[in-house]
Structure formats: structure tokens, C-alpha cells
Design brief:
- With 480 residues, the protein is an alpha/beta fold.
- 45% of the residues lie in helices and 17% in strands.
- The protein is built from 19 helices and twelve strands.
- The strands form two sheets. It has an eight-stranded mixed sheet.
- Strand 1 and strand 2 form a beta hairpin.
- Helix 1 runs parallel beside helix 4.
- It is globular, with a radius of gyration of 26 Å.
- The chain starts with a helix and ends in a 22-residue tail after the last strand.
């Protein structure tokens, strides 16, 4: 909506004052997302989104106003708007099709910000100058400011902790605020500003501050995948990252190699269900979302575990034993079903599974169509009468248990909401993460047989939100 509005503002002559403000705000519109990209902070999602949206609107309005100023006479407007549409389509093709092939990281956003700072600039831009090549060469002051901004990102946390300041909000304010102030200070000189933001956005791709070594990187239509090596005093962890979220990890030692870690540890709600007496009576398990294949560690010889995974790159990584061996070492029979899980499950016969596990909500973007009323109705049809649905609802920004509560109430199901957040030091050392799960069944007696811990509360006790359907969802209703 903001992007389309930028066309209206840019073209409408009576909105010229808004265009003037947007042109003046281009340095801030570039700096806000640039500084965010330089930081690994996951603090206050509302401010993060506001910064990115502000940058989008300001830059788009400025760029579109520059195009609007070049409008030809009326007789040539058809060609002008046709070419403008072609340009937009080419940009979309580049982002959707070419960028995943050309880049092993999310580079296109950073490139767009640098181009915006280069071309859509208040006053006379470097590209408008005849000697623009000379004007792009940085001097000592440019490099000093760039290094100062980068130092603020790197050193703020240890420096403040050394001074006895451990409040995360204060640390985030310094790590974000100081580089932003430096960017604004550099803004009067376009070249200087370009040097500062370019270094800030390049830094996270270098991986210099991470204790993890990247073993493999792949990027597909569905996002950026990285396999990383995390050294420890006793062995190491191999981790699968999807964007900024760990989607499974495995320890190198023989003692812990087959121990499920992260959200799927043996003391987690999932582990308690899959190691209960109930698990001895089941034979068919469907899992939506493969990750590193951690859940295969629970497999019993009489089980068939069907993994529904939309991204072939994930299957390639999880089944490569030089990275992860959960799938190779599992006692269960393993089946991979590539494609959209909901469409693929719909083709399976009803009452095919004893357990369905939905593990698709822990990344930075959730597939909404997997947690609608119609989706849950589908899962229940595919479960046998005694079947159990387990939904992994851990998320950095969203609280999804109230949504699970409303869906179960609407469909007349029984369920528990489990918030497993008290992790002991020993559990943390063994790789356990805090997690949130919904455990759902048609029969309340089945839920009772699972003997889940006391932190699992009836979903009916939770405050509910309006149920999502295929025709309605509201991300704001579940925003933390």
C-alpha cells in the first residue's frame, strides 16, 4: 500500500510538499534500514518494521518523483507508463528469480539502498556530476566515520557490559542510535554517507564477529540456508540456519550425536509425547517441515515418518551425512514428500496418520495457510480417531497459542498449550531451547494419557483471538 501510494504522491502536483519532505529525508530513509541490517538485534519488532516501511516510502516517493519530472508530452504518455511498468516488472523478476541464483545472501536489499543513496539524493547527486568517478573516491575522514559507525555496532555491547550496564534496551539503543547519528552526521556529504552505509551493510555478510564457521550456504526461492559449525569445549554443534532462525542442530560427540536438541529435546512437550506409552501404539507419523531432521531421532522400527517439505534445498542438507545424521541413523522408515504440505496432505487418504506434527512456524515468516481453520480441519481428517496433532508455535515476534485456542474451540477439539521456558543449565548445555507447543486431539482422554507436565494448560484457558480462515487472517492480533 505504501509503495503504490508513493506513485500517487509523486505524480499528484498538489502533493509537491510531501515530495520535498521525502527528498530531504532520503538519507534517513536509507540509514534506518542500513543500520538495522548491520545489527543482529531482534529488539522491538514494531520499531524495526516502522524503520523499514519509512525507508520504503521515502525512497520510493523520491525515485518516482524523479521519474514523474521526466514525463513527456501527453502524446507520449502511453509509452512512458508502459516502460515504467516494464521497469517494475524487471525489478520483480530480478528479486524473485535472479537474486536467489546470483547471491548466497540477501544482497539485493542492501544494493537497492546503496543505489538509492547514489541516485535519489536531495540536491545535486554525484551521478549528476561530470566528474562523478573522482567524487566517489573516499578520503580519510570518510573512512574514519565509517569505521566509527562499525565500531559502535561491534563494541557497544562489551563496552557497556564492562561498565556494568546489561539492560538489553540500553544496549540496543547504543548499537542502533550511535551508528544512526554518525550516518546523519555524514549525510551532508553524499560520498561520505555512501561509504558509511556501504561498510555497515557489508559487515554482516563478512561474518567476522561470529564464533560460528559457515560450512555451506544455499539460497532458494524460500530463503537463505546456512550450515554452521559452533565450536565447544567438548566437540561442536552443527547448526542449520534458515534466515536468522536455527532449524535444528546436532552435536559431534558419540554421546550426544543422537540426542534431539533445540526445540525437540527429550524433555520438551514433543519429546514427552513421542516417548510416552502412547508412542508405542502408533505407526504412522507425518511431519510438516524437515529442518535438520531432528525428530527422526525418536523413530521406532515400526514407525513410518513422512516428512512434508517445500524446499528441496532443505532435504539436500538434512540428508547429507557430512552435516547431519539424524535421518541416516533413525530406526524408522523415512519418506520425503516435496511440495506444499497442505496440498500434499490433502491427497493422502483420510485417517492415514496417528500423529501429525506441524513445524513450520519458527522462522521469520510463517506460512499462514497452515494454521487456518480449514487447515486444522484437514489435519483432523488425516488423523486416525485416536490421533494427536502437535503444532510447534515458537516464534520470536508472534504469540500463536491464542490462535490455536480459538481454532480448537471453533472446531470442538481438546488441547493443551505448553510453554516450556524454564531451561536448566544442564539442558541448555545439551542444546535445549525454550519452546511453545499446542497438543490437540478430538478426544480429551487421549490428551490426558500423554501425562504432559504442569506447565501445559488447557487451550480453553487462554485468551482467544478471532480464528483465522483461508479468507481471513490478522497478523496484528498475534504480534507480541
Amino acid at each position: 500500500a505504501l509503495y503504490l501510494s508513493s506513485f500517487i504522491v509523486a505524480v499528484a502536483r498538489y502533493m509537491s510538499s510531501i515530495v520535498t519532505l521525502c527528498r530531504a529525508a532520503v538519507p534517513l530513509g536509507v540509514a534506518l534500514p542500513a543500520v538495522r541490517l548491520a545489527n543482529d538485534l531482534h529488539h522491538n519488532i514494531t520499531l524495526q518494521v516502522a524503520g523499514h516501511l519509512f525507508g520504503l516510502f521515502v525512497i520510493a516517493t523520491c525515485a518516482h518523483s524523479l521519474l514523474a519530472e521526466k514525463r513527456p508530452p501527453v502524446r507520449d504518455l502511453t509509452e512512458f507508463y508502459l516502460l515504467l511498468s516494464v521497469g517494475g516488472a524487471l525489478g520483480g523478476v530480478f528479486n524473485a528469480l535472479l537474486a536467489p541464483v546470483l547471491f548466497n545472501g540477501i544482497w539485493e536489499y542492501a544494493i537497492a539502498l546503496v543505489l538509492a543513496a547514489l541516485a535519489a539524493w536531495p540536491g545535486k547527486a554525484i551521478l549528476d556530476s561530470h566528474n562523478w568517478k573522482d567524487r566517489l573516491v573516499p578520503d580519510a575522514q570518510d573512512l574514519f566515520l565509517a569505521m566509527a559507525a562499525l565500531a559502535a555496532v561491534i563494541a557497544a555491547k562489551p563496552a557497556l557490559e564492562y561498565l556494568g550496564i546489561s539492560n538489553l534496551t540500553v544496549i540496543a539503543a547504543f548499537r542502533f542510535g550511535v551508528p544512526l547519528i554518525i550516518c546523519v552526521a555524514a549525510a551532508p556529504v553524499q560520498k561520505r554517507f555512501l561509504v558509511v552505509i556501504s561498510l555497515l551493510m557489508l559487515f554482516p555478510h563478512l561474518g567476522l564477529m561470529s564464533s560460528r564457521k559457515t560450512l555451506f550456504t544455499d539460497r532458494s526461492f524460500f530463503g537463505l540456508l546456512r550450515v554452521q559449525y559452533q565450536p565447544l569445549e567438548s566437540g561442536h554443534w552443527v547448526q542449520l540456519w534458515h534466515g536468522s532462525t536455527v532449524h535444528g542442530m546436532q552435536h559431534s560427540s558419540e554421546e550426544l550425536r543422537n540426542e534431539p536438541a533445540t526445540y525437540f529435546s527429550r524433555s520438551s512437550p514433543l519429546g514427552r509425547v513421542l516417548e510416552s506409552d502412547y508412542a508405542l501404539e502408533i505407526s504412522d507419523v507425518a511431519i510438516v517441515g524437515l529442518g535438520a531432521g531432528t525428530m527422526a531421532a525418536y523413530g521406532l522400527p515400526h514407525w513410518k515418518m513422512s516428512y512434508f517439505e517445500i524446499d528441496p534445498a532443505v532435504v539436500k542438507i538434512a540428508s547429507d551425512s557430512q552435516f547431519f545424521t539424524y535421518l541416516r541413523d533413525s530406526a524408522a522408515r523415512i519418506e520425503y514428500v516435496l511440495g506444499d504440505a497442505r496440498l500434499k496432505l490433502a491427497k493422502r487418504p483420510d485417517a492415514s496418520y496417528d500423529v501429525i506434527i506441524i513445524d513450520a512456524f519458527s522462522s521469520d515468516a510463517i506460512p499462514v495457510h497452515l494454521i487456518t481453520m480449514e487447515a486444522v480441519e484437514l489435519y483432523m481428517r488425516k488423523l486416525r480417531p485416536h490421533g494427536v496433532l502437535l503444532a510447534h508455535l515458537t516464534n520470536r515476534y508472534l504469540t500463536l497459542l491464542p490462535l490455536a485456542a480459538s481454532l480448537t474451540a471453533e472446531l470442538g477439539l481438546s488441547g493443551l498449550g505448553c510453554i516450556d521456558s524454564n531451561i536448566s543449565p544442564e539442558e541448555a548445555l545439551n542444546g535445549k531451547y525454550a519452546s511453545r507447543w499446542a497438543v490437540i486431539s478430538r478426544d480429551a482422554a487421549i490428551i490426558g494419557q500423554l501425562q504432559l507436565p504442569s506447565y501445559c494448560k488447557p487451550l480453553s484457558d487462554l485468551p482467544a483471538v478471532r480464528p483465522w480462515t483461508d479468507g481471513y487472517s490478522n497478523i496484528m492480533s498475534v504480534l507480541k
